[in-house]
Specification:
The complex is a heterodimer. Chain A is mainly alpha-helical. In chain A, 82% of the residues lie in helices and 0% in strands. In chain A, helix 2 packs across helix 10 (211-235) and helix 9 packs antiparallel against helix 10 (211-235). Chain A is elongated. In chain B, helix 4 (108-117) packs across helix 5 (133-146). The mean pLDDT of chain B is 91. Classes of the chains: A mainly alpha, B alpha/beta. The interface between A and B is medium-sized, with 21 and 26 residues.
């Protein structure tokens, strides 16, 4: 992947940011400049690193569990019409509910620690993974299915040897979406109730008018999300049929 | 392989009560090539799909039977215009797809022999995306042969190929499918004239059996009688469409 363009964009954004700070001359608790934020980040690197690790762990577990559940659901939906009729409306309905509103109850159910954040991440990525993989499973090229039927293949063999591999590119796009959503889920969980993690650190810094620390934590989260996205992109390249 | 049977199709088909083709009677002679020629939408692929036991969207009122009284469907192998090679599997895995799907162990000797006969030994571990259209269609032919079925249903398998590759494939297919009962559905009069031992021209209203050149198939591409037949078939196609 070429890094030139994203780097140039980052430099441009930082210059613009610095320009706005110089031009408006706002106090640093309203809008700290990039240099101040960088200094704060360096001074607080141990705290930030510790909390980043926590959030990263929540996101990673959430991503793995959510993807596995989503993929399993998609396969169940694709293999049985009865399951489709029963479960699909339910799935759509759950998407109409604001997941944010569930965060306090998740804290109540899964505790103040890791569990509720993982649950939040799982909830937020479950639907995109399920829905994109399911779409792929239902869109197997008809010709493949015809061929398999003339070969006397069982429904089970058709599912596992044709429909699933043919749908892997769709699963890959679901997983890539999930990599972007999962950190948001974890941070929402941290906001509602926690004593650790980048979301907690942002809330804490904000409460004490340490806007520079809030920015430092937020940018760290951004970098974490981008890195995760790149890793997942790389891991799913074969699946998506790109790295041939 | 035991001797291939005759296949007889008798009946008509309709879609939502609108006739697709009038009642017809088509016999695929045992061990021979029957070419079913017709324009787009006359239902020739439907006839093939009915024999294969595939969904057609049409209602068929009639019978399909084999001369030996055994069921037809489990004895067919199918090859379409699209090579239908799975992009995630290499050539060897694609050719042995049938055995895999049935949970059987693929016959490695037979695989090697067939890849040799279609000239793909060197390409066994290539993905379909790494091969030319002609190579892909040869892999599809090997997969069809791997099934070792008595009845071969070909739905315009050569029509997407360039002229030279198409002529090569036609000859290879005749050579390799010897002794099997073959139905070739095509819209190309030249292909029917080259390959058919029986040639039937299909339209919505009728099925006409046509005279076939005396020389054995595959006929030379410049065989005069073959070219005359091609002309006659095209004329009939246009008359029937009018």
């Amino acid at each position: 992947m070429k890094m030139g363009a994203p780097l140039a964009a980052a430099v441009f954004a930082i210059l613009l940011w610095q320009g706005v700070v110089l031009f408006t001359a706002l106090p640093r608790f309203i809008l700290p400049g990039p240099i101040v934020v960088a200094e704060t980040w360096w001074a607080n690197r141990a705290v930030i690193a510790e909390n980043t690790l926590i959030t990263a762990l929540e996101v990673l577990i959430g991503l793995i569990v959510g993807s596995a559940l989503g993929a399993a659901t998609a396969i169940q939906l694709a293999s049985s019409r009865a399951v489709r009729v029963l479960v699909q409306p339910m799935l759509v309905f759950t998407q109409a509910l604001p997941v944010f509103a569930l965060a306090p109850i998740l804290t109540l159910w899964f505790g103040y620690g890791l569990g509720s954040k993982v649950a939040m991440a799982v909830l937020i990525i479950y639907f995109p993974v399920t829905s994109s993989f399911f779409d792929g499973l239902m869109r197997t090229p008809e010709g493949y299915l015809d061929l398999a039927r003339t070969m006397q293949a069982s429904r089970r063999a058709i599912l596992w040897q044709i429909r699933v591999p043919a749908a892997l590119p769709s699963l890959a796009s679901g997983l890539r979406l999930a990599a972007v959503y999962a950190p948001i889920g974890a941070v929402i969980g941290e906001w509602v109730g926690s004593s650790r993690g980048l979301g907690y650190l942002m809330l804490l810094a904000n409460g004490r008018a340490k806007t520079d620390l809030m920015f430092a934590a937020m940018l760290t989260l951004g970098v974490l999300s981008v890195l995760l996205h790149l890793v997942v992109r790389k891991l799913t390249a074969r699946m998506a049929g790109e790295a041939r | 392989m035991t001797a291939a049977p005759d296949i007889t199709v008798e009946g008509g088909a309709s879609i939502d009560g609108v006739p697709l083709f009038a009642p017809l009677s088509l016999v695929l002679k045992a061990g021979e090539w029957t070419c079913l020629l017709g324009g787009s939408g006359v239902g020739k692929s439907t006839v093939l799909r009915l024999i294969a036991g595939l969904q057609t969207g049409a209602t068929f009122d009639g019978t399909i039977r084999a001369s030996d009284g055994q069921p037809v469907m489990p004895r067919v192998a199918y090859m379409a215009q699209d090579d239908l090679l799975m992009p995630w599997a290499d050539v060897a895995r694609n050719v042995t797809m049938g055995a895999r799907l049935r949970g059987e162990k693929p016959d490695a000797d037979r695989l090697a022999r067939l890849l040799g006969r279609v000239g793909l030994t060197e390409h066994a571990h290539k993905k379909p995306s790494e091969m030319s259209g002609g190579q892909r269609q040869r892999a599809a032919l090997a997969r069809t042969l791997m099934e070792d079925k008595q009845i071969i249903l070909l739905d315009e398998p050569f029509s997407a190929l360039d002229a030279r590759t198409r002529a090569d494939m036609q000859e290879l297919a005749v050579e390799l499918l010897q002794g099997r009962t073959v139905l070739l559905v095509t819209h190309d009069p030249g292909e029917a004239a080259r390959l058919g031992q029986t040639i039937a021209v299909m339209s919505h209203r009728s099925l006409d059996h046509c005279a076939v050149p005396a020389s054995p198939a595959p006929r030379l591409v410049d065989d005069i009688e073959m070219l005359e037949t091609q002309g006659a078939l095209l004329r009939l196609l246009r008359e029937r469409a009018a």
